[in-house]
Specification:
Order of helices and strands of chain A: HHHHEEEHHHHHH
Number of helices of chain B: 3
Radius of gyration of chain A: 25 Å
Strand content of chain A: under 5%
Structural class of chain A: mainly alpha
Strand content of chain B: under 5%
Oligomer: heterodimer
Strand order of the largest sheet of chain A: 2-1-3
Structural class of chain B: mainly alpha
Number of strands of chain B: 0
């Protein structure tokens, strides 16, 4: 059976390679992909949307419907992780570890023992603990604000440079994941609770779809942002640019919150107690 | 586009892809997959698709590796192959 599968895979690869020879060369102006709509985008994109980065204009405006459902797919992935993994019942019968902050002495509290909860001198550490490292802890904490600023820059500067809601959102989510890895999951869930991530992930998608439906209510097509001109008090071209910004903010919010949410569920196996 | 660079990166992509599916250690496979994604990111950048390269770097090489590592950490191996 394994041999048959191997031969099948080889044959399939050979067919794919063979068909790749009939592709037009990279960047060929006479290729079918470059002959129909690309010309229109390149000629009129800047005039119609006032967005210099054509990729952003195509993604969020001309193909806005597509991007909306891409974001929906990511939300579905986050919700699927939540439903598959989240467990509310605490795992019983396990001892817990506490570290004395000043001396670094580790206490093992057996089940039923008195735990120093809310103590200023002790902090709980994970079962699969690694020795406390001041450098990793502080360096990650120092990097986070700058990384978050960069993430916001990527989202808001997507009109002019590579980037946009997806990339900026992922970078923003990665900063919170960095905190959760370098410290522990419990302190990170206190900063950015599960409820917030669930709320932001649906709110981001709501902003996207809401922008689209606002256009519909103002008497235009779904996601035709030029209808927002009256609402935003700008001309229709700038309204499309601002509409793109609105949906990018929505995508960024949704993607960052979903990445954090998936990480929480995966890293703690749905218990939100001990992370990586 | 420098074709020598192209060939080197394409070879590395193939090596990383083959190694990621043939290695037994799942953590190693996750790291190799991250390397594969990073090489793909370089290829996209070489071809001028900077937005795609950015997405590949942040999603493929960044967050998805963390998810793989978390999944490996939270699961146990049951088969012996």
């Amino acid at each position: 059976m394994k041999r048959f599968a191997f031969i099948g895979v080889l044959l399939f690869g050979a067919v794919l390679l063979y068909s790749s020879f009939s592709f037009p060369p990279l960047g060929d102006p006479h290729a079918p992909a470059n002959r129909h709509v690309s010309d229109d985008y390149i000629r009129d994109g800047m005039k119609e949307t006032a967005v210099p980065n054509l990729v952003t204009a195509v993604l969020a405006d001309y193909r806005g419907y597509d991007t909306m459902f891409e974001a929906t797919v990511i939300l579905a992935a986050g919700i699927a992780c939540f439903f598959l993994l989240r467990r509310y019942r605490r795992k019983p019968a396990q001892h817990r570890l506490y570290r004395h902050i000043d001396t670094g002495v580790i206490l093992i509290i057996e089940q039923g023992g008195k735990e120093p909860v809310d103590s200023k001198e002790f902090e709980r550490i994970d079962y699969h603990w690694v020795p406390f490292d001041l450098v990793v802890n502080k360096a990650a904490g120092l990097m986070v604000p700058f990384l978050q600023l960069f993430a916001l820059y990527v989202i808001f500067h997507g009109h002019h440079s590579p980037g946009g809601g997806f990339q900026g959102g992922v970078i923003f989510g990665a900063t919170v994941i960095l905190l959760a890895i370098s410290r522990d999951l419990r302190s990170t869930t206190r900063l950015f609770p599960e409820r917030t991530s669930a709320f932001l992930s649906s709110a981001g998608l709501f902003i996207y779809a809401g922008t689209g439906f606002a256009c519909l209510l103002l008497g235009s097509n779904l996601l035709d942002y030029s209808a927002l001109a009256r609402l935003l008090a700008v001309d229709p071209v700038m309204a499309r640019s601002h509409g793109i910004l609105l949906v990018e903010i929505g995508v960024g919010m949704a993607v960052s919150a979903i990445m954090i949410w998936i990480y929480y569920n995966l890293a703690s196996a749905g218990r939100y107690d001990e992370g990586l | 586009m420098i074709w020598q660079l192209d060939v080197i990166i394409l070879t590395l992509v193939i090596i990383c892809g083959l190694a990621a599916i043939s290695i037994r250690d799942l953590l190693g496979a996750a790291v190799l997959f991250s390397a594969y994604s990073f090489m793909m990111c370089l290829l996209w950048a070489i071809m001028g698709a900077v937005d795609v390269a950015f997405t590949e770097a942040s999603v493929g090489a960044g967050v998805s590796t963390v998810f793989f590592v978390a999944a490996v950490f939270r699961t146990t191996r049951s088969s012996k192959d």
